[in-house]
Structures are given as C-alpha cells and as structure tokens.
Design goal:
With 457 residues, the protein is α+β, with helices and mostly antiparallel strands. It has helices at 7-20, 25-37, 55-68, 71-74, 102-105, 110-119, 124-131, 134-152, 156-162, 165-181, 189-204, 209-228, 235-293, 304-321, 335-342, 344-361, 385-399, 424-439, and strands spanning 2-5, 42-45, 77-78, 85-87, 325-333, 367-372, 375-381, 408-416, 449-454. It is built from 18 helices and 9 strands.
C-alpha cells in the first residue's frame, strides 16, 4: 500500500483515517508516524511502519484507506500484484470527511474574537499602539528571547519538557515568531488559531499550564523594558503601549487556556468512551457467562438449577392470578439401547433432535429443561392438563412417529391450579410418577403414552 502525501492534503487525510479507527492504540501510533513524515512531501509504505505497527494494524491501514478513498476518487492504479494499489493524491482530490479546525471545534469565529476583544477592552487604538512597537521590538527580539531563556533556567524541570537541543532551538524560533505576531496588527482568526495551537501542543506534550503563564509574565516584563527604552516616544504613548501589551497577552492566555481545556475534555471523552465500552463488554460477557451457566451444554435447554428458579417464579405468578400451570415430565424409551448399540455420539444426536423438537413445540413463555440424562421437564403457564396433552402429541409428531426404530416418549403431566398449587419439587415428583405409569404401558401398542394427575383430585 503506497501513500503519496503532501503538506496541503496530509492533515485532512490523517483526520479521516483517525475518525475511522481512533480507539486503537496501534492506529494512534500509526497516525503519529504519518504526521511526522507529512510535514514535507514524502512517500510512505506500510513496510516503513514496521517498527510502529503490528501485522494486524498494517492490514487495518490497507483496508480503511481503501474504504475512505475508493479507486475512482483517487485514480488508484492496480500494479499487477493482487491486492497492491498505488494511491496518488492529485489536485482533483475531494476530501470525503472534512476535518474541522480547532477554532471550529471551539466555535470560535471572527464575531467571537471581536466579542472577546471587547471583553478585555482591546480597541483599534490599542492595536495601533502595538503596531507602533514593532520596529523597536524587532531590533531587540534576540535579546528578549535570550533573556527569557535565562530566566527559565531557574526551572530545571522545564527543559525536561523541551527534551533535546534541536527541539530547544526550534522552540526559540517559534518564540520569536510569537513575539513578532504580538505586534503585527492582525488579530483575527489566523492569529487566534496560532494561540489555540499553543494550547493544543502544550497539552499534547503535558507541559503544565503554569509554565505558559510564567513565560507570558516574563515576556511582558521583557517587552515592557524594551518599550520603556524608546526615548523617542512620549510617556503617555509608552503607557498606552504597555496597557495594550497587557491586554493582548491576556487575550492570548484566554485562547491558549480554551484550547488546553478542550484537549483535556476530548481526552476525558475518549477515556470515558473507552471505559464505557470496556464496562459494556464486561457486562455482555458476564451476561453470556450467566446464560451459559443456566444452559445445558449439549441441548441448549435450561439446566436443572435454572429450571427450578424459573418454575418457582412462574408458579408464584400463577397462584396470584389463579390460572392453571402444567408440569410435563418425560424421558426417552430406548435411549440406552441407542447409546449401547450405536455409540454415545448417536445418543447425543438423539438428545439434540429432541431439544430441537421441544423448541418448535413450545411458546416463548414456556420453560424447557434437560433434567438429567434422557429426562426432560416442561413448565407450561396458563395451560391445563388437556392442552398440555396436545403439546406432548405435537412434540412426538415433530420428533417423529412412535416406533420408528429410534426412541419413544413416555409423558407424565401434573396440573396445578386454579385452586390448589404445590412446590416445584412436589409438582416434578408427581409428574415423574405419572411418567413411570406411562412407561409401564410400553409395548401395549399405544402410539403415545401420557398419564395425567391434577393436584387436589
């Protein structure tokens, strides 16, 4: 996968990829590498990211890039090797997902900038006063930067944030640009964007806000000294320039802090989202495990413990509402012969087929359980014994006709309500007794064997 980047399009493309998979730490490392190399024209391949990405992340790069920028949009050209594409970004590139600027994310417009200027009392006269300082400041900018660095030497941990000498030199160049911009007379969206970027990178590199405020205070002191040395200006003009300088630095601090807190809130939002996803994943997993603990592994029906819990609730509800409940207990005649003659896998297959027939026979409100071995129980709410008999016949018919050489069913039914009720154990015991009576009739030629007993009879 080949990417041809240039400075004009790199940031929007990186932003589009980032939104597609921003929760992956591997993606974050990938995008940081892209950003570092996109400052100048560069060609990147997935292989160049080998130290940064795992094989899985490399496949994600290929897949997502192909999704975001389809062949017809990029003029992608297949290069003979299956699955390898050359993506060349030209003048006709149409950005699929526009990435908002930091100013747009903060809802900062020209109108908002004017409103904040009014808040700090910055007038056109103040802007003119600042422009009037440009020449003298330019003559002394090297001195100001040197003096500021000397003052910052008293904070050894500050240089821990700067890192190496090259970064330190670049920071000094950026500082000169910052000082010159204070006096260029243009304080619109472009000026404010640069201040927002200061706050963004300050947070990105985890530089405490106190260092920005201390540096701003030092810059004000040093610039004030330079402005006061302008002997060609009157005291009133110098005073107005000093007042304007204080206002513009306060405005700067305002925007820097806005960006700093915005970046902090974004990170909190991402962390909160990750925690929420993690918790939801744990909850889903816990629910899955809980459900698995209630199910028979082979048939998918409820196990005995879960059946007893659900049956207690169902019987309690029936007793409050005075409607009948039937418990069906059945086992498979001839199941042992299947296991002995055809093996346990054949026996397992029979149990699965019985389970499938049970599912097709019951309503959503009914409860089915593999009670143990080849024994099953059903709980049928709002169902008298006569209707429970129909359920048993339907189950036998779905599984297959009696005497088909596989297994037969013996059913016992115990009905509770609408006047007399029993516990789960009592109801199951009575249905079990009825099942054994039905089993005793095996071989008498009956197509289906069912015995019924109602509590209270």
């Amino acid at each position: 996968m080949l990417f041809l980047w240039n400075q004009h399009t790199a940031q929007t493309q990186v932003g589009a990829i980032f939104r597609a998979a921003r929760r992956s730490p591997g993606w974050r490392r990938c995008l940081e590498t892209f950003k570092q190399r996109s400052a100048s024209r560069a060609i990147l391949t997935v292989n160049q990211l080998e130290d940064t990405l795992s094989p899985r992340c490399k496949r994600m790069v290929t897949g997502v890039a192909g999704f975001l920028w389809p062949d017809e949009r990029l003029g992608a050209r297949k290069q003979g090797i299956a699955g390898t594409y050359s993506l060349r970004i030209g003048e006709s590139f149409v950005e699929p997902y526009p990435l908002p600027s930091l100013a747009e994310q903060l809802n900062i417009t020209e109108g908002e900038i004017q409103s904040r200027k009014q808040l700090f009392g910055i007038t056109p006269e103040d802007e003119e006063a600042l422009v009037g300082c440009a020449r003298i400041v330019e003559r002394n900018v090297e001195e100001i930067v040197t003096a500021l660095c000397r003052r910052l030497h008293q904070f050894p941990d500050f240089y821990a944030f700067v890192g190496d000498r090259d970064t330190y030199e670049r920071w000094k160049v950026a500082l000169k640009i910052y000082i010159r911009e204070l006096f260029n007379g243009s304080y619109g969206i472009s000026y404010v964007t640069q201040r927002l970027l200061i706050g963004k990178f300050q947070y990105k590199f985890k530089v405490p806000h106190k260092y920005y405020m201390a540096g701003s205070h030092f810059i004000q002191d040093l610039l004030s000294d330079v402005i006061r040395r302008d002997t060609a200006s009157s005291k009133d003009l110098i005073a107005s320039r000093l007042a304007a300088l204080q206002k513009i630095l306060l405005l700067d601090a305002h925007f820097v802090l806005d960006a700093y807190t915005k970046m902090m809130s974004l990170e909190v939002d991402v962390a909160r989202s990750e925690v929420r996803d993690y918790v939801q994943g744990l909850e889903r997993r816990a629910k899955e495990l809980s459900e698995l603990s209630r199910r028979d592994e082979l048939t998918g029906l409820m196990n005995r413990r879960a059946f007893v819990e659900e049956a207690r609730r169902a019987i309690s509800m029936a007793q409050r509402s005075h409607y009948p409940v039937s418990i069906v207990y059945f086992d498979l005649d001839g199941f042992k012969a299947v296991n002995d003659m055809r093996g346990h896998l054949a026996g397992d297959d029979v149990l699965k087929r019985v389970s499938a027939a049970v599912h097709k026979s019951l309503r959503e409100t009914d409860i089915a359980c593999r009670y143990g071995g080849d024994e099953f129980t059903l709980l049928l709410p709002t169902t008298p014994a006569e209707q429970a008999t129909l359920v048993c016949k339907r189950l036998q018919a779905i599984y297959g006709p009696s005497g088909n050489g596989d297994v037969d069913f013996s059913f016992g039914i115990a009905q509770m309500g609408p006047s007399t009720y029993a516990t789960v154990d009592e109801a199951v015991r009575l249905a079990d007794d009825m099942m054994y009576k039905a089993k005793a009739e095996r071989g008498n030629g009956k197509p289906i064997r069912i015995h019924i007993k109602q509590f209270g009879d």
